[in-house]
Amino acid sequence: MKSTGLHEGKVNRVAVTSLVLGRIVYAINWYCIAAVFSLIAFDLKQNVSGLGFVTAAFYMGIGIFQVPGGILAAKIGPRSTVIYGTTIASLAALLSGFASNLAEIMVLRFLVGAGMAFVFAPGVILVTRYLEKGSEGLGVGVYNAAFYLGGTIGLSGWAILAVAVGWRISLVVSGSLGLATSLLLVVCVPKDNLRSDFKIDPNRLRLILSDRWLLALSISLLGLGVGTTVVGNFMAYYLENVSHVAVGEAGTIASLAVVLALVTAPFSGRIFDRFGNAKRLLLATGTIMAFGIGIAFFGTLYSSVISGILVGLSSGAGFTFGFAAAREANMFGPEYETLAVSWVNSISLFGDFVPPLLFSYFAIQFGYPFAWLCLATLSFILIVPVLLSKASQRRVSTQS
């Protein structure tokens, strides 16, 4: 029988540690392309629009395959889904180091995103499964903190690595690390105990996909994602090409957002466990996020630093609140938990392919200050729907 509860009955530190390490490398492969794109642009004769297209392709891949990933996890189990996704994403990241033109990089980044779509939500379920009961929010926070740690390494460390050995080798290294974590997960995470009689219920699938609270949560996370997308993917390039900051220093400044998110994510998980008012928590973090994006308007080194700090603080807290609320809102038992989180994640991530295109267009046509202000406004507007929606009441059923 497959477990019908949220927990396996005991803490499995080895499994949690391997999942956290996998999440760190996952984030390195997410952010390293932004850290080295100035070198790619010089080599392939591209500009900020090229970065916009590459980033958009990645978010389309990771957004489109979220729900298929959730359905797959319900059928074959979260462990197998995480392993398959990590392998696909890592292999595509490795092959990016051999790309000869921008079109090839776009296709490979789409595949990196597609693979990553099979990792996050099943990973959340596994981490919360192997921690003690009552620490679910903390589990989400720790898993998110691992992402921000990896993002810090990807933005700052890979900028330095690319300068030392070249952008191609740096991408081969990041992809190889990802393949190594796939093997680690195979060894350290217990196999899923699948129910042979379980089948996806179309009616329950429809109810999850039409749940207004889950839709509102996804839109609010899209608003938060505007900030993490433009700051995480464009700040380093902006500092290097507009403020003429060295590649290594620009990567370090850009990584401030993920450093601060790393600090706030686990702490925010504890806040959600104790208070759980997702509406107020998301409003507060969304307001900070919009202000953080907007302050980059001033175009100084100091405003860029403050922007990274505020975006990081709100990102680490906001995504933890949103995903914890999505997991809590699942009404149909453990088989559907991954799907509920995946559905929320799919809309927010698929929508994230738009901000890179908007930002690069506005920056080229009207200048970077205008681009920062427009994206800050968009970020705040997208927080509003969660305030107008009623939270779903958890109604767990263990029947298939």
Describe the structure.
It is a single chain. This protein has helices at residues 13-44, 48-64, 66-76, 78-96, 102-116, 120-129, 136-165, 167-188, 202-210, 212-241, 247-254, 256-274, 278-294, 301-329, 337-351, 354-366, 368-381, 384-387. By secondary structure, it is an all-alpha fold. Helix 13 packs antiparallel against helix 14. The protein is globular. It contains 18 helices and no strands. The model is unreliable at 1-7 and 394-400 (pLDDT under 50). It has one domain (13-189, 199-387): Growth Hormone, Chain: A.
Describe this structure in a few short sentences.
This protein has 400 residues and is mainly alpha-helical. 78% of the residues lie in helices and 0% in strands. It has helices spanning 13-44, 48-64, 66-76, 78-96, 102-116, 120-129, 136-165, 167-188, 202-210, 212-241, 247-254, 256-274, 278-294, 301-329, 337-351, 354-366, 368-381, 384-387.
